[in-house]
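Q: Convert this sequence to structure tokens.
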Amino acid sequence: FFLMTIQEARQQTSRKMSVPMIRPISVNLRPRYNKKSPKVKRRSDPKSHSSPMVLSRRSSLPDNGRSEHSLLCETFPTFPKKMMDCMVLRYSGNYYKIRKVLINKGWKAETTHVFQKTRDPHIITKYYYGAAPSPEEQDEIFKGQPSGSFITYFRHVDGIPWYFAALLDDGKRLEIRISGPDALPSELTWLNNPIFDPNKRSVKHIPNVGASNLLDQYESLFDL
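A:
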């Protein structure tokens, strides 16, 4: 048997007590969110409610009642009229592009009118007949056509061009006023059979451009 001194016993005890302490690892129990994930809007947020889409077509005439064709001719008053009409047909009534082409060719724009980057519906709308067909012509156009057939056209009223649509509903032909060659009311969903104009496109489809249109405009001032 061994006898230990008090000092040896203290040293042995100190060795047993010098066990390294293990520090507890702090764990975050809260769920982690991806910063890139989209935020969900609350119902109380008024922006979270998207308003219903309202589809509307722009009027085919500017606010001053003058056609883009006439404004283009005023922009280049010295450019030959017949050549201008050919360019209107060539570029499907894209007056913005016509203006750009003429300026690149050296022609000077005399006005600062801004044309839209769209094609003229007077030129590209196939079911638009230009000046209103006579009642006899409309009888021939709608002959044998089913319900839901339609065409559009313009007619001068008090010297101002108004646009109309002729509709075939259960064998009856109706006429309603519209704001442009292709501006059919969106609620008339049963209009599903456009009748295309067989005539060749020309600038006469644009009100107040052809000579016959100007005569109709003058005579309409005296209609009762």
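The longest helix spans residues 6-17.
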